[in-house]
């Protein structure tokens, strides 16, 4: 566990994946049954990428201490929408954490922040590159006191040439090229409806932390983990960035069409649109059978995936005419019965309700009793160590006394091996 040793530990002589000393509850009394039980995370991040990362870790059992400025995480003020006066944005990414507000200009508060970082297994921060050096909270300073620390830094554009650029998701959507791909060919560039690169970078940060935890379990060594929105964006645009690199062709906006697959878009029916995602020749033959248009599958213009992609302008009106025979809900049932990839176009309410009908149980209760809040389930399922949803997102500084008492208690504990 953290907060007990400043010396780099030896690699534990245990079978891979075993905990050296499992505990039923963490230092704050929370049920410690998740796969990250016993891991302490000092969360110096704010807004989305960092808090999303640390929430995922907290769901998996890590003890997460959210260190905020006295004014709080900016997302607390991002309204509307609201739930009982609180920002739903903030509530969506801060469950299972404990909050302490610290003013780094105050010597006492700064020392508390350093003590938290010195004892944590993991530090997550998204300050501008170099922004924590003057407080002695940068990686080099923390690692001097805590050599086994795993220190995850999240930036917008890295710590080299882009260090001075502000790291907002919208800016990265624009600079990475994503906005040039979003919208109709004649429309202006559009951002995604969600801060996709913040979320993606939070996921990459969590993956980096988990990989580093595994390595540390073997070697006992700490290390720094760096992720940035721009790199996550270029990696996350997968086929579009690779398509440019390998072909030299710059991709452009195609509306809802796919550059390499057809039909792979919403198509009009007698009443409403239905999305078809026909990814191979077998699926296209099945579609033709269901539409009672087998001649399309034999047509050399449409018989193979590359041909369908090249001749989509000829195929689209034929499909539209056939689909006009029934409304979208009927086609969805028919296509689903034929095991064809298709989907209605839902709003967010419809998406959650559809997941409920599938038995995915997307909505969980966060916290207990009258104070419990609805939240979206962690998307990772474990057969033996499930995610938990014990704590509602904390108010500013809500856990100061408990955190300070814990720091005092652990400071008096005898030195022992970090897990």
TrEMBL record:
The keyword Transferase applies. GO terms for molecular function: transferase activity. Pfam families: CoA_transf_3. Transmembrane segments: none annotated. Residues 1-27 are annotated as: Disordered. InterPro entries: CoA-transferase_III_domain (IPR050483), CoA-Trfase_fam_III (IPR003673), CoA-Trfase_III_dom3_sf (IPR044855), CoA-Trfase_III_dom_1_sf (IPR023606). PANTHER family: SUCCINATE--HYDROXYMETHYLGLUTARATE COA-TRANSFERASE. This is CoA transferase. It comes from Arthrobacter hankyongi.
